[in-house]
Amino acid sequence: MDYDVLLCNGLVIDPANSRNGRFHIGIRGDNIQRVWEADDHMPLPASKMVIDAKELIVTPGLIDLHVHIFTDYTPLGIQTDRIGVQQGVTTVVDAGSAGVETYPIFLEKAVTSSETEVLAWINISRLGLCGGLSELADLSQLAPVETAHLMKNDSRICGIKARMSASVVQENGSKPLYIAKQVARELEVPVMVHIGNAPPALHDVLELLEAGDVVTHAFHGKKGGIFTEEGSLLPEAERALKRGVIFDVGHGTSSFSFATMRRALEFGIKPYTISTDIYRQNIDGPVHSLAMTMNKLLALGVSLDEVVEMSTCNPARILRKEHEIGTLTEGTRADISLLRMKKGPLELTDSEQATLTTSSYLQPELTIKSGKVLKCV
Ligand SMILES: [Zn+2]
């Protein structure tokens, strides 16, 4: 046998390799062995399993840059595979559910028993979200030295999370972010900053961020977002984008607005990454899944190629793992998503209860994780 799994004739969209067309993909063990253009005149090589993907869109395994998976220990956590491989997502990045003190339990509960690959933004607060949702209100709970030490010894942790909104930081303004940035700069890793209700004001938060740092919830519909009340783009947001700060969707229960996203697109601003901020309280709406969040961007006019890019190679770049994930490069691990473009109509809802109706939408059908074929739910 040449291959363990052969994916035939799928419409492959692999922005990392500028592929968009009909390709065959041969998998051996947990690796992508070969990717080649489909040609009806050539016989197919022998394979233990053949998947006819003619009707399907084949992408690198989807990556969700912002999720919460620490069940039982945090108020938000959801079971990892439920939002991972069961929904076409091969890698999830937990966004600050764990801090340095709770990280060992996080590994045990949310990571080791999952098929889905788990990476993490570590919370700069020592307990993460395990001590409640005001984790940056007491500066003595911040753990820069211990966090730096842990990160040096764990390649699963890709960056630092700091949630910058009034209910989280209370009297502390931007101080927690300032501390997180000192650690991040020392280790040359990005920070992911959650933005929400002020204080701290968004312009103060943005001024602390550098190229590669991530603003999640960038397109929320609350007061004090990236647009002024008169509708112009905040000068600090424009400057941040220019110097390479990343704007991420981070949908969440209350953090994605069609109106804000539409206005941003009119200004020529697209999200660099699409993430869900999915957790127990929003999986049944308005978030549902990464695919459904991708569908919302598609419905707002972002192209399929770009939406795939924003959910595969772009998050991989932020995580500095673009040579391992988010790509269908031969020799890399076989993490692949197979999606069907279904006919609508389907009504989509944002965090402000605004709706829009789409005529077609993506639905995950199969996930291949490290060469293993899994059916989506
Ligand atoms: Zn979150």
UniProtKB/TrEMBL annotation:
Pfam family, one: Amidohydro_1
EC top class, as a word: hydrolase
Site positions (Transition state stabilizer): 163
Origin: domain of life: Bacteria
Domain Amidohydrolase-related: 57-373
Binding site for Zn(2+) 1: 66, 68, 161, 277
Gene3D superfamilies named in the record: Metal-dependent hydrolases, Urease, subunit C, domain 1
InterPro entries for this protein: Amidohydro-rel, Deacetylase_Atu3266-like, Metal-dep_hydrolase_composite, Metal_Hydrolase
NCBIfam families per UniProt: PRK09237.1
Protein name: D-aminoacylase
